[in-house]
Write a structure and sequence with these properties.
Elements (H helix, E strand, L loop, with lengths): L1 H26 L2 E3 L8 E5 L4 H9 L4 E6 L2 H15 L4 E5 L5 H14 L5 E4 L17 H23 L3 E6 L8 E2 L12 H22 L5 E6 L13 H9 L7 H13 L10 E4 L9 H11 L7 E4 L2 H4 L2 E5 L2 E5 L10 H13 L1 H6 L2 H4 L7 E3 L6
Parallel strand pairs: 2-3, 2-5, 3-4, 5-6, 6-8, 8-9
Antiparallel strand pairs: 1-13, 7-12, 9-10, 11-12
Helix pairs in contact: 2-8, 4-5, 5-6
The structure holds NADP nicotinamide-adenine-dinucleotide phosphate.
Length: 385
């Protein structure tokens, strides 16, 4: 018994000591870009904390609007970013996504103030809220995470088009795969599960991005959905259990800076336009880690689809969203299993990637310094994390 306990303790200690390396290994890419941000205008929702705050910090070479529901929290984040980055163009404006009046007031104020908008990041989100409704009577997850951002984007769309090339990045989540659009009970009045309510709203984010991309074709405005990874943030604040787990496993969870990299990539990387409407997630293990050689071999031998550092899903799941039935009622859901093989979009994407040789560039980030590539890149450098 003592031996087992001893072994377990040693194993756990080993796990915790190596946790930062394990985390960095799986954290994914880092957005490297030489894109000129001065003169650009960015709006980020919910940027007073978490992933949004780090995204704002990284984009602070532009004029950044922190759109948040608590102006005091926003000001405190903005003054921290201003002090860190010496950029005084970090501005705070009130935006409560759970109230369409507040969204309209924000949009009105912004449109009066700014003649351009180049990047809109729909970042704010709530998770696992007890059942509640927004000021307009929408279930909170759907209302804040999707409908609020839907309205905001709609209201700012003309300004985005006038400022093209422009981008809309919407924070979704990997859990959108468990989501359904329950048209017969959108507000969760008949059945409510707070976990699923979050998944449904994140699926709505992915579908919104896809449809928006279609409607914006040819306008110069492109749009992307993002899964930032599992990130150490305040998102779990409504669940005692998750708060506990987040604390326990915090060394293994991404930092908010690491979590911001996928949003930054979608906002800045050059050449992403053909991928408008896609869902991005980080999958590729770090290239320079001790395991990368082994994993690299494994990838190339076991899978013909060696992914780039940041993978844009073909959207097959979203494209394959199908009408289903739940208790005799119509629902829109995604297939549980991802279909095998490549579809046409996958092939086109892979071809484009190969053409640009971005993967080769990413494998050798030093090229950037030599001026060989000015493209935005996602590469993983453990020492930078
Ligand atoms: N963390 C993860 O592991 C993870 C994983 C997948 C996806 N995501 C997504 O990433 C995004 C950012 O999450 P995070 O981890 O940074 O969470 P976070 O630290 O809790 O930040 C969420 C932000 O949204 C704001 N917000 C909430 N309700 C709002 C409302 N009604 N109006 C305006 N702003 C509101 C919050 O403001 P207050 O501070 O005032 O509450 C906060 O600034 C979310 O969309 C989330 O779904 C996160």
């Amino acid at each position: 018994m003592l031996v087992v306990l001893g072994l377990l303790t040693s194993f756990l200690s080993f796990l915790y000591v190596t946790a930062p390396s394990i985390r960095k290994f799986f954290a994914g890419g880092v957005c490297r870009t030489n894109v000129q941000l001065s003169g650009k205008v960015v709006v980020i929702t919910g940027a007073n904390t978490g992933i949004g705050k780090e995204t704002a910090r990284e984009l602070s070479r532009a004029r950044v609007y922190i759109a948040c529901r608590d102006v005091l929290k926003g000001e405190s984040a903005a003054s921290e970013i201003r002090a860190d980055t010496k950029n005084s163009q970090v501005l705070v404006r009130k935006l409560d996504l759970s109230d369409t009046k507040s969204i309209r007031a924000f949009a009105e104020g912004f449109l009066a103030e700014e003649k351009q908008l180049h990047i809109l990041i729909n970042n704010a989100g709530v998770m696992l809220c007890p059942y509640s409704k927004t000021a307009d009577g929408f279930e909170t997850h759907l209302g804040v995470n999707h409908l609020g951002h839907f309205l905001l984007t709609r209201l700012l769309l003309e300004r985005l088009k006038e400022s093209a090339p422009a981008r809309v990045v919407t924070l979704s989540s990997v859990v959108h795969h468990a989501g359904k659009i329950r048209f017969h009970d959108l507000q969760g009045e008949k059945y409510y599960n707070r976990g699923f309510a979050y998944c449904h709203s994140k699926l709505a984010n992915v579908l919104f991005t896809r449809e928006l991309a279609k409607r914006l074709k040819g306008t110069g405005v492109t749009t992307y959905a993002v899964h930032p990874g599992i990130v150490r943030s305040e998102l779990v604040r409504h669940s005692f259990l998750l708060c506990l787990l987040w604390r326990l496993f915090s060394p293994f969870l991404k930092t908010t800076w690491e979590g911001a990299q996928t949003s930054l990539h979608c906002a800045l990387a050059e050449g992403l336009e053909p991928l408008s409407g896609k869902y991005f997630r980080v999958t590729q293990p770090e290239q320079h880690s001790p395991f990368s050689a082994i994993l690299g071999k494994w990838h190339s031998s076991a899978s013909p689809r060696r992914p780039p550092l940041l993978v844009a899903e073909s959207g097959k799941r979203a494209a394959g969203a199908a009408w289903g039935h739940e208790g005799g009622k119509k629902t829109l859901q995604l297939p549980r299993k991802q279909a095998k093989g490549m579809d046409e979009e996958d092939k086109a994407f892979k071809q484009k990637q190969e053409e640009r040789k971005t993967f080769q560039e990413l494998k050798n980030p030093r090229q950037e310094g030599k001026g060989k590539s000015k493209t935005a890149q996602m590469s993983h450098e453990a020492k930078n994390l």
